[in-house]
Amino acid sequence: MNNTMKHNFTFIIKGDFCYSASKKELAARENHFLICINGICAGIFENIPMQYRHIPVTDYSGHLILPGLTDLHTHAPQYSFRGMGMDLELLDWLNTHTFPEESRYEDLAYARNAYRRFTDDMIHGPSTRACIFATRHVTATLLLMDMLEASGLITKVGKVNMDRNCPFPLCEADFNTSLSDTQLWLEASKKQKRCLPILTPRFIPSCSDPLMKGLADLQKNTGLPVQSHLSENLSEIEWVQELCPDSRFYGEAYYNYHLFGGETCPTIMAHCVHSSPEEIELLKSQNVWVAHCPQSNTNLSSGIAPVRRYLDQDLRIGLGSDIAGGTCGSIFRAMTDAIQVSKLYWRLIDTDAVPVTVEEAFWMGTAGGGTFFGKTGSFLPGWDADILVMDESRFPNTSPLTLRQRLERVIYLSEDRDILHKFVAGRQLF
Ligand code: GUN
Ligand code: FE
């Protein structure tokens, strides 16, 4: 890496590029040049156009170069207990493992150590962007945000709101405490530039009526985005029906609180495994992003989300690791999981729901989720220069492969150690 590249987000890289031109269409450009001007991709060219000839070129010839991935749904405090309680379903898993573990984030020394590991692994993984749940604790959440701010990644982090149906001391004392803690957290996070706050009511069972109303007022006044969970598990859905008898379905409960997308409330709903046709219609009309988390949905026996329908109906959709429901933080892995569970869905549940293709899974893990952050997840002109330079030397091949074949192998085989370089909005992390 030369100094110009390190300190100036204007550069040119040469190599073999793959990116989504659209949801179904992969663009593959061998031996081309990507021009990055102030962190924004100016395009990919066979020859460097005259006006860019003064810009330094770094040669990654022979390397596959991809857009950075987006993890649209993960839980930082759950990183420490991955792979535990995987024989349980959601509500038992929350009570047995998740809530006791999250209670420990009152202790700042514990939080610092655990969040350091999470952040270090995020830096070295393939995601350049992520939407992250912290815990309900203000100080530990700010600590996580400081670490992520320094990491160079671009992220959104939520202090979790939860004032009912969870054990003391994790449960917030009442809705007023939850809202005033949220105000404190937002005030303290104003200095952040790359790690920004996102309102995070955990899910309907954890949030009282006055808390949801207070969060909706806050959302309206601040324009902040929102993330939560929706229709993940059958017992959870039944419970929400009891808690919100006036809503016809789970998503309508969020909608009635004015925390469900629309022009001024960008929203991510994780899972949507058991969404009814009415709920899907509302997700679409409100432009809510679905965070599809196939590994978590398998581990917790939640089910298989009808992703073919979401893709065909043009819903906004990206992929999430959902650590620790999911055990693997890599969105490459989420791509293969999405393809695999869609094949089971097609074979066993609905023969009309054709499996997710490599192109579609790649799109979901890049531009599909990335657009929650703006123009992120493709190399089209004007999009953010989030870049992964891959090293495929661990996957030897006997005959020359097409770029599409090389991409499929990287999706299925690569690990964090196969990422040679990573750039976020033009800034090189390593
Ligand atoms: N629903 C409410 N909280 C959680 C959580 O921590 N993980 C998952 N997978 N679902 C949830
Ligand atoms: Fe989750």
Walkthrough of the structure:
With 430 residues, the protein is α/β, with parallel strands linked by helices. The protein folds into 2 domains: 3-67 and 379-428, Urease, subunit C, domain 1 (Roll); 69-373, Metal-dependent hydrolases (TIM Barrel), CATH 3.20.20.140. Helix content is 37%, strand content 22%. It is built from 14 helices and 17 strands. It has helices at 3-7, 90-103, 108-124, 138-151, 175-188, 209-222, 234-243, 250-256, 277-285, 294-299, 307-312, 331-348, 358-370, 403-413; strands at 11-20, 26-37, 40-45, 57-67, 69-75, 127-133, 154-158, 160-161, 195-197, 200-201, 226-230, 267-271, 289-292, 316-319, 387-390, 419-424, 427-428. The strands form 4 sheets. A 7-stranded mixed β-sheet has the order 3-2-1-4-15-16-17. A 4-stranded parallel β-sheet has the order 5-6-7-9. Strand 1 (11-20) and strand 2 form a beta hairpin. Helix 4 runs parallel beside helix 5 (175-188) and helix 12 (331-348) crosses helix 13 (358-370). It starts with a helix and ends with a strand. The relative contact order is 0.16. The model is unreliable at 1-6 (pLDDT under 50). The site of guanine has 11 residues, from helix 2. Residues 65-428 form the Amidohydrolase-related domain. This is Amidohydrolase family protein.
